[in-house]
């Protein structure tokens, strides 16, 4: 059996350097305090770029998501916009059903035509249930069909503990999500639709002469916070998905089932402060750039550049980032033909012996099969190496 080739790297000033046997930095003791006590039925703290979980409690517990549902409603509408199936200026005729929807409202009127952009702001900023239903009906014909679209996206995103029955988050027996799932959804929302995410930081919106403020209290308390959504029902309690960016690090926090609007803001702030205080995130490698070179047999060329398919971000305890070690494991027997993107090994990142991240190493170019002479030559070399 062929054995992988190993190369070990360390970090110095943000640059990856080859090691022989010694580390450039002596590893100091690593102590990271436990997450603060959070008065919530469940919570989750996620680094946006690295996807590292920094804190959690009952993160997979299925709970009523209340108006946090509207993050998924917006996500589905944004996908329809991106696909060209509707436009922001498109007019939506408000149905009796949308107008009658209970709970928080944008205060649209029956049979009036409202732009998609206004309805989105009414839903995201004002948490209007009437706006949510109007958008769902316009996109899918009915709220029930729209819920099917929501569940399709939940499945695609890996939201294993979520099921949606409506576009609003109003109580329904089989309507639920989890702290982890909502963080995954927020991560996808921010990454895929930055052009629309700006509405999440908007503090107020005026429609039909009525101005309503965003219920995310952190928008007034913490300038690093720029989203996402709050929610409340008797079953759900006070819930919140928040995101904040300080320097180059973005975190996403989720708190479910807190006691009040002020409590959900305080608990979210506590989680975010903890993450920013005790952790740091940086990009280790740029995707598509050569990380190492290996021999390829029976190809039109004998050398193959390998790297990562996408950028690799790593989160580590603050002040210990330069103690990270990266080890590449490249398959010894790499043969043509080979397609760009094919896996040829792995990159493993550790800190003080603990695994931090692992990503496949891929071929950065396609290599066609070589001529008869090249194949025979490499076959002969292979036989000699086995002796």
TrEMBL record:
Residues 279-369 form the Peptidase S11 D-Ala-D-Ala carboxypeptidase A C-terminal domain. One of its GO terms (molecular function) is serine-type D-Ala-D-Ala carboxypeptidase activity. InterPro entries: Beta-lactam/transpept-like, Peniciliin-bd_prot_C_sf, Peptidase_S11, Peptidase_S11_C, Peptidase_S11_C_sf, Peptidase_S11_N. It is an enzyme of class 3 (hydrolase). Pfam families: PBP5_C, Peptidase_S11. GO terms for biological process: cell wall organization; peptidoglycan biosynthetic process; proteolysis; regulation of cell shape. It comes from the Bacteria. Its EC number is 3.4.16.4. The active site is at residues 67, 70, 127. Residues 1-26 form the signal peptide. Substrate binds at residue 229. It catalyses: Preferential cleavage: (Ac)2-L-Lys-D-Ala-|-D-Ala. Also transpeptidation of peptidyl-alanyl moieties that are N-acyl substituents of D-alanine. Pathway: Cell wall biogenesis; peptidoglycan biosynthesis. SUPFAM superfamilies: beta-lactamase/transpeptidase-like (SSF56601), Penicillin-binding protein associated domain (SSF69189). Keywords: Carboxypeptidase, Cell shape, Cell wall biogenesis/degradation, Hydrolase, Peptidoglycan synthesis, Protease, Signal. Removes C-terminal D-alanyl residues from sugar-peptide cell wall precursors. Belongs to the peptidase S11 family. This is serine-type D-Ala-D-Ala carboxypeptidase.
């Amino acid at each position: 059996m062929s054995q992988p080739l190993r190369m070990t790297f360390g970090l110095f000033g943000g640059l990856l350097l080859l090691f022989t046997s010694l580390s450039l930095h002596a590893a100091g003791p690593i102590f990271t305090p436990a997450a603060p006590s959070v008065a919530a039925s469940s919570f989750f703290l996620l680094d946006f770029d690295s996807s590292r979980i920094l804190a959690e409690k009952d993160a997979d517990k299925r709970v009523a998501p209340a108006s946090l549902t509207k993050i998924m409603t917006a996500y589905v509408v944004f996908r329809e916009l991106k696909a060209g199936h509707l436009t922001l200026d498109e007019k939506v005729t408000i149905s009796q059903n949308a107008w009658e929807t209970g709970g928080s409202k944008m205060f649209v009127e029956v049979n009036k035509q409202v732009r998609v952009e206004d309805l989105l702001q009414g839903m995201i900023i004002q948490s209007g249930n009437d706006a949510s239903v109007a958008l769902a009906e316009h996109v899918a014909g009915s709220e029930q069909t729209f819920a099917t679209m929501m569940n399709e996206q939940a499945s695609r995103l890996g939201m294993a503990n979520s099921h949606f029955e409506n576009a609003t988050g109003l109580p329904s027996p089989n309507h639920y999500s989890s702290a982890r799932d909502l963080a995954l959804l927020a991560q996808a929302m921010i990454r895929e639709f930055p052009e629309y995410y700006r509405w999440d930081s908007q503090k107020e919106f005026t429609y039909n002469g009525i101005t309503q403020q965003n219920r995310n209290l952190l928008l007034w308390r913490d300038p690093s916070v720029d989203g996402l959504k709050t929610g409340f029902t008797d079953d759900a309690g006070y819930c919140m998905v928040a995101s904040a960016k300080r320097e180059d690090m973005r975190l996403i926090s989720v708190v479910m089932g807190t006691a009040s609007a002020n409590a959900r803001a305080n608990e979210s702030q506590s989680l975010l402060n903890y993450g920013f205080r005790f952790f740091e995130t940086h990009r280790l490698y740029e995707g598509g750039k050569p990380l190492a070179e290996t021999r390829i047999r029976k190809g039109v060329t004998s050398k193959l550049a390998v790297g990562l398919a996408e950028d690799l971000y790593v989160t580590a305890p603050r002040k210990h980032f330069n103690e990270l070690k990266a080890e590449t494991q490249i398959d010894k027997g790499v043969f043509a033909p080979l397609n760009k993107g094919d896996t040829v090994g792995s990159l493993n990142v550790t800190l003080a012996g603990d695994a931090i991240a692992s990503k496949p190493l891929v071929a950065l170019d396609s290599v066609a099969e070589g001529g008869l002479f090249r194949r025979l030559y490499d076959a002969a070399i292979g036989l000699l190496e086995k002796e």
